[in-house]
Write a structure and sequence with these properties.
By secondary structure, this protein is mainly α. The chain contains 5 helices and no strands.
């Protein structure tokens, strides 16, 4: 088998995962896309390991060993990631990344700046005066 077949498949898988990371709004789907990207890397590692072992005399299979480490890291990442997503969903009621970003930014705006609070209270007072 030629090296081009797994390399092209790996590139397609990685591109699909990258699109999923950039375009999705749900945190669980983003985690799934990251897993797809890691699997594309694993496919590349194994394909190049097989290709290099045919040309070299010693067969250490370092690509396959790196793949096992990548699988272990991916399993830990998905376990911790899902725990964080579930905790955020229980606290905030959504797993939508854009809504979580908006709530985080609004919490930062409630800080210690007195001028911003005065600027926020003036329109409220004007609205009450006109009503």
């Amino acid at each position: 088998m030629h090296l081009a077949y797994p390399a092209v498949l790996s590139a397609l898988l990685f591109s699909t995962g990258l699109y999923g990371v950039l375009a999705r709004r749900n945190a669980i789907l983003v985690l799934m896309s990251v897993e797809l990207m890691l699997n594309a890397v694993n496919l590349n590692l194994v394909a190049f390991d097989v290709w290099l072992s045919r040309t070299a005399q010693d067969t250490l299979h370092s690509g396959q060993a790196l793949t096992l480490f990548t699988i272990a890291v991916a399993a830990a990442e998905i376990g911790i990631g899902l725990a964080i997503v579930l905790a955020v969903h229980r606290n905030r009621g959504t797993a939508d990344i854009d809504k979580l970003r908006d709530t985080a930014e609004s919490a930062d705006d409630d800080g210690t700046d007195d001028d911003s609070e005065a600027a926020r209270s003036e329109p409220a007072e004007k609205a009450e005066a006109t009503a």
